[in-house]
């Protein structure tokens, strides 16, 4: 008598169909009784998808097959074994037949012991794969449709500041205020780590307890009323929490090429150290960086606190008291502002060639060219693709000109002046954090060189 393994499976999506565990089991038992098969074991995978073979009961059955405990595997329907064409053929040919185990699909009424059954296995597995692909396509299209309609697709992690109710994102006012605060703190100069520490302490919860949560929040366009699926962004039907202008300002800080490419730690990852000039001070003797600790800025080579930062073990450059050097640098920033000396640091800026009226004239010319191309198509036999290509080029050029009309470029010198003004303003406020000061000062100063009692400031003028 042949020893049969009965394999039954149901996914969560199929619980409402007629393929329940109990139904499959009863029918397979009746089949074995009619065929005079001895049931070795019933292998049950409840709630597992047929899209892969990572199923505990299936693995157990395959182990028993390798140990020669089974003669035949019987399923109620082919897709109970797998919905993947590749997996179906691999299981039957590489696992069953290679171990002299036949495979029977009860509903399709065939088995691999006959040539016709072997041929039908290949054919039916193709349709099983087709069904799986169709389900995936319908699911994907459904999510795309929801996104185009502005509906959030849901998930286990709902964005902070919202609640997901009846398929819609609804603002949670208390959390929304926290989201706004995170954006505003970042723009004001606080680091991501500092924001996380501050907000966890302030709100006494774990919603903001690490930097990655803050970073994900700052990057999420859901807060300006957008929804995203498959790398495509759509206008959402939910209410925005922050303004588009604030979001874009944050993105410009996060993704600016200047910030990403700078080797200066103070600019790329500001505020990790706890002093205003941390990561900006260098030794004028050996070139090593100065560290800030125990009340002093000290040359790493002299302090010998971290071997990898030592440049010259014999360096004897002097230490500077932290408040003394901070005050001296602040005073130099003030002096360069009052004397307007910083303007001499920058090369003259060429005036823009085109003013707004000139740009509008160029746009008008492009519109005329496009109209002429349309007339030319109507009166001649020029191929439509040629006309469309030329119109596309002109339209792109027009779009760039329209953008230029409303863009007023800020020169490096103007930005430098603005950063000085902001720094001097916040430095007078006793409640200003070290983080905020470091953010601005690192946009004004590239590095500070200590040569005994001489302090040379290299301004960030490029």
Per-chain topology:
Blueprint: E1 3-10, H1 21-35, E2 38-46, H2 56-66, E3 72-75, H3 78-81, H4 85-96, E4 102-105, E5 110-111, H5 115-148, E6 162-165, E7 168-171, H6 173-188, H7 192-203, H8 211-219, E8 226-229, E9 232-235, H9 244-255, H10 257-261, H11 265-268, E10 281-283, E11 290-293, E12 296-299, H12 300-303, E13 320-321, H13 322-338, H14 356-379, H15 384-405, H16 412-427, H17 434-444, E14 445-451, E15 454-459
Parallel strand pairs: 1-2, 1-3, 3-4, 10-14
Antiparallel strand pairs: 4-5, 6-7, 8-9, 11-12, 12-13, 14-15
Portion in helices? 40-55%
Which CATH architecture of the largest domain would you pick?
A: 3-Layer(aba) Sandwich
Number of strands: 15
Total number of helices: 17
N-C termini distance: 87 Å
Strand order of the largest sheet: 2-1-3-4-5
Q: Write down the overall mean pLDDT.
A: 79
Determine the structural class based on helices, strands and strand pairing.
Answer: alpha/beta
The fraction of residues in strands falls at: 5-15%
Are there runs of 5+ residues with pLDDT below 50, and where? 257-273, 349-354
Question: What is the CATH domain class of the largest domain?
Answer: Alpha Beta
Q: What radius of gyration results from the CA coordinates?
A: 35 Å
Main pleated sheet: 5 strands, mixed
Apparent shape = elongated
**Domains (count):** 4
CATH superfamily of the largest domain: Resolvase, N-terminal catalytic domain
CATH topology of the largest domain: Rossmann fold
């Amino acid at each position: 008598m042949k020893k049969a393994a009965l394999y039954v499976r149901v996914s969560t999506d199929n619980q409402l169909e007629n393929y329940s565990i109990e139904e499959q089991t009863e029918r397979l038992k009746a089949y074995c009784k009619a065929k005079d098969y001895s049931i070795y074991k019933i292998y049950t995978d409840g709630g597992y998808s047929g899209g892969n073979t990572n199923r505990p009961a299936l693995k157990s059955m395959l182990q028993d097959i390798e140990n020669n405990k089974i003669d035949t595997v019987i399923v109620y329907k082919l897709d109970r074994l797998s919905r993947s064409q590749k997996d179906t053929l691999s299981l039957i040919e590489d696992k069953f037949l290679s171990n002299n185990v036949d495979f029977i699909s009860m509903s399709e009424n065939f088995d691999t012991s006959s040539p016709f059954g072997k041929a039908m296995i290949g054919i039916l597995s193709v349709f099983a794969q087709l069904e799986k692909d169709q389900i995936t396509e319908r699911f994907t299209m459904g999510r795309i449709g929801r996104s185009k309609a502005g509906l959030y697709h849901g998930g286990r992690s709902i964005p902070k500041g919202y609640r997901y109710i009846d398929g819609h994102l609804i603002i949670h006012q208390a959390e929304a205020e926290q989201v706004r605060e995170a954006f505003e703190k970042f723009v004001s100069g606080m680091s991501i780590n500092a924001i996380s520490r501050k907000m966890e302490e302030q709100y006494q919860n774990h919603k903001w307890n690490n930097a990655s949560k803050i970073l994900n929040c700052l990057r999420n366009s859901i807060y300006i009323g957008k929804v995203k699926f498959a790398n495509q962004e759509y206008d959402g039907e939910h209410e925005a929490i922050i303004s588009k202008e604030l979001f874009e300002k944050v993105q410009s800080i996060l993704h600016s090429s200047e910030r990403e490419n700078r080797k200066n730690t103070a600019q790329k990852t500001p505020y990790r150290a706890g002093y205003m000039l941390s990561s900006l001070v260098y030794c004028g003797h050996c070139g090593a960086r100065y560290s800030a600790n125990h009340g002093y800025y000290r040359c790493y080579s002299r302090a010998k606190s971290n071997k990898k930062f030592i440049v010259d073990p014999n360096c004897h450059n002097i230490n500077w008291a932290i408040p003394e050097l901070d005050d001296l640098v602040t005073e130099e920033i003030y002096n360069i502002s009052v004397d307007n000396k910083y303007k001499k640091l920058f090369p003259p800026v060429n005036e823009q060639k085109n003013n707004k009226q000139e740009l509008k004239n160029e746009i008008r010319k492009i519109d005329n060219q496009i109209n002429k191309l349309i007339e030319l198509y109507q009166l001649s036999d020029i191929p439509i693709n040629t006309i469309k290509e030329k119109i596309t080029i002109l339209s792109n050029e027009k779009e760039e000109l329209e953008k230029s009309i409303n863009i007023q470029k800020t020169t490096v010198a103007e930005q430098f002046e603005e950063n000085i003004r902001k720094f001097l303003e916040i430095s007078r406020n006793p409640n200003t954090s070290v983080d905020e000061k470091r953010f601005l000062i690192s946009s004004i100063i590239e590095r500070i060189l200590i040569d005994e009692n001489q302090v040379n400031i290299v301004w960030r003028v490029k």
